[in-house]
Amino acid sequence: MLLQRDRQRRRWQIRDPSIVVKILKLELDGISCRCLDSWLRIAVKPGIEVFTLMPRDELECLLSNALALEKLILDGCKEIIYLKIPCVLQKLSYLSVFGCERLQAIDSKAPNLSSLFLTGKPLELSLGDTMQMKNLAMFRQNVVCYARAKLSSTMPNLETLILRSDEEVVNTPMLPTKFIYLKHLTIRLVSGLTFSPSYDYFSLVSFLDASPSLETLYLDVCQPYMKHESVFGDFTHLRQIPEHSHFYLKSVKIIGFSSAKGLVELACYIIKNAVSLECLTLDTLYGSRCYGETDTTCEPASDGFLMEAPPRAVTAIRTYIEDKVPPTVKLTVLEPCTRCHARAEC
């Protein structure tokens, strides 16, 4: 619905009282912030459950008066440079910001913010009391190192953490700080032009040691061309670190598993130390799979990749991992799909 002039107010009258509007999308074009309150009084009626507002620019006057706001999503707001969320938003628990290219800082005083989703370049974060933060997703460069170095001390009560990095050049550091309550960890590393081939996947052990309550680990390594040191290199010796039992880790899935030495060492560490592990899935492809569904397809892969990477990954699993898996753990090794990647069998 497009509101532009005062004379359009009459159009908001609902003639049939039996009709209850639950979803309202309000797009404002040419409306000043001074008029916003009057427009909302006209448009927002009892019974509305989902309200999408698309303003031209400033949100300050809206946020200052939306006392019942529980979920705020900013998508593609290219004019916003500084986002300030006042403390009066007592009910705000979810904030999602993506596609805001010019955004430089977020200053939130909302006391009950517990879920945060951020994409884009690094920005200045001031979130007030971060002890309430339970769920966090961040997509940015070098976010894995940042999360381990900063978040375990500033957001110690996280339960779900999702990280995606298109550029990870620094190994994950080993630190004494802990994610005491973290249960679900997802890390996606995309091998782009700036992804360092010297990055050590084995350094991700730092997250495991810092997360004593971890139950699920999902690692997605998207690398069409494996440039890391192979486990089949000359004089290969698998590294080991002091044993540290993980009592709650039950499910581990690694997508894009290859013969990279660090990945093999990480899998061996998990098998040895995750005493409650129930299932370990090693997928030798990267990206999405069809899983046998006829209306979907696996992510395309070059013939060169299919003929080289998956066979070497399977050999690495059989050589270094398979015989270490205890009988109580279900090991699933996924090879190229026979329907989508039939040429991989040639």
UniProtKB/TrEMBL annotation:
Q: What residues does the At1g61320/AtMIF1 LRR domain cover?
A: 57-338
- InterPro entries registered for this protein in UniProt: At1g61320/At1g61330-like, LRR_At1g61320_AtMIF1, LRR_dom_sf
Q: Which residues form a coiled coil?
A: none
UniProt cross-references to Pfam families, sorted A to Z: LRR_At1g61320_AtMIF1
Q: Which SUPFAM superfamilies match?
A: RNI-like (SSF52047)
Superkingdom of this protein's organism: Eukaryota
By its UniProt entry, which PANTHER family does this protein fall under?
OS02G0105600 PROTEIN, OS04G0479800 PROTEIN
| Name recorded for this polypeptide | At1g61320/AtMIF1 LRR domain-containing protein
What species does this protein belong to?
Eleusine coracana subsp. coracana
